[in-house]
Amino acid sequence: MAATSPDLRADAGAAPANGGFLGWFLAPERRGALLVTPALAVLFIMNIFPLLWSFGLSFFNFRANRQGVPDFVGLRFYERVLTDDDVWQRFQTTAVIVGSSVVLQLIIGFLLALMFAKEFPLRRILLMLVLTPMMLSFVSVGVFFKFYYEPTFGLVSWVVNHFTDERFVMLATPAGAIAGIVVADAWMWSPFVMLLVLAGLVSVPRYLYEAAEIDRASWWRRFSTITFPYIKSLLLLAVLFRTIETFKLFDVVYIITSGGPGTSTETIAVYVYRMAFQFFRTSQASALAYIVLFVVIVLTSLYLYAVRRRAEEVS
Amino acid sequence: MATVTTPTPVRSPTKAKMRLPRRRQEIGKAGWGWTAFVGLVSMVYFFPVLWIILTAFKSRTDAFAIPPKLFFTPTLDNFVSVFYRASISGGSQQTDFPLYFFNSIFIAGLSVLIAIVLGTLAAYAFSRFPLKGTDTYMFIILTTRMMPPIVAIIPIFLMFRLTGLSGTYFGIILLYTAFNIPFSVWLVKSFFDELNPEVEDAARMDGATEGRVFFGVCLPQVLAGLAATFVFGLILTWNEFLFALLLTGVETRTVPVAMARTLGGEVGVDYGLLAAIVTLFLIPIFFVTFLLQNQLLRGITFGTVKR
User: Fold this and answer.
1) pTM recorded for the entire structure
2) Which is it for strands B28-29 and A118-119: parallel, antiparallel or unpaired?
């Protein structure tokens, strides 16, 4: 029985083998590579090759709006980018937005998950209402919140005006503008954290809670010894995934504040965009983009490590 | 038991599937009181979307009224003005939005379709005939997706300018195909990984060719997954902004870019019009969110978290 399987496989390979080159080409041992090639080819042309190109560019003094042969400058742009106070300030802004948004998402997502971790009438429809923000486009979300923050007829200003007599312009102060972006982003992505936590919550065996009830364990003890161990690996995934994604935050900032007031909400992505497409410092932007890419690669490998660890836990 | 002689499968997808029904029973139950509470919270959470939809049906004065109006006479004016605007001569003239909606659908549809075909082939190979360094390939593929678009856009912009691809359908579709491949490979692979390889081996023993095993045995089993992948890809591409902003021209502009441009004129932004566009743009998203509720988590994490 065990012998038939390889025989048939050999047959499948042997039939085209009479066809010379084509047979060699379609041989079973090359099948995997053959199937993978088209996808990898497209990725190479549209992603890997351009990245190598811009890696090369980052060593030359090149501006996309000038003619002429760019001259080799070596690591000068990397040096300039890494010692530039502006860059560090953008990294700080990004860190503040990422940090506060992810924390907010964790809290709201967790509370939402607690709500939906039960079976009740109309659950599916209500869940849809909560999940919708996650599926919206960043531009739509930007439009929503820009409308709500609008000083004269926006809802937020209208509510605040009940308490103060002063005209409330949410996006006029750096703190207000950052808060505005964080709220929009957290509103959009808390449902994602909710889904992850929900997956953890429903995997907790009920008998553990029943046992805890018999032992009269306090709410906190039940949470820390039963619930938390079941959701912690998912929470880690949520934090890493959302950190990577929020790190890229561009569209919402671009729509709501375009980096202002001043440069107080300019995230690293917006900064690279400006540098490359408004000031045309193409090489310097490429160098900075490469540093960003490095951060993302590190975060992605951490994420995959967490995914693997969880897969081992579950199985 | 009789199972002693059968070799244990390397993956155990059946185990995971069997656990699900038991788990359903483990969720606590609650009644209508809980529904009322959750409904209230959900409505609050949903409110920003609801308000935009309401705004879309308001007249210009109602939309900008202070205090904001919750009750008003609905009008379709905003929706009409998405498609037609009054021209100077008194007649009405078509706007460019039908074109933008067509572009969004056409570009997203075609690129996702190509990406899924290529991605499925690759996913099948990665799942069934692992190459040397499959993990590395999968990591690189995922990185190209996790990478901020701003990193890739600089060289792609230059490349498109040199080759004359910017502003063409071909260019943006090719780019979005590349944008969707990583996602398709990871997601579809997660569906292939769940299948029981014994079924395929049985088919091979019955003399099925490799082609038949793929098209006749594996593919039908992941069809639902492919559909989910397709719809997810559509939404992601449909929502994409930065690439479209820099690489589409007047003829190939997509709706998000058009929205951003409508918003661009700081003074006197017509939020009623924007709300109508957003509302139209929302309709497919509602359907998808409802239909794919159970696949959302998996889709959005590229298949790395299944449940």
Assistant:
1) 0.82
2) parallel
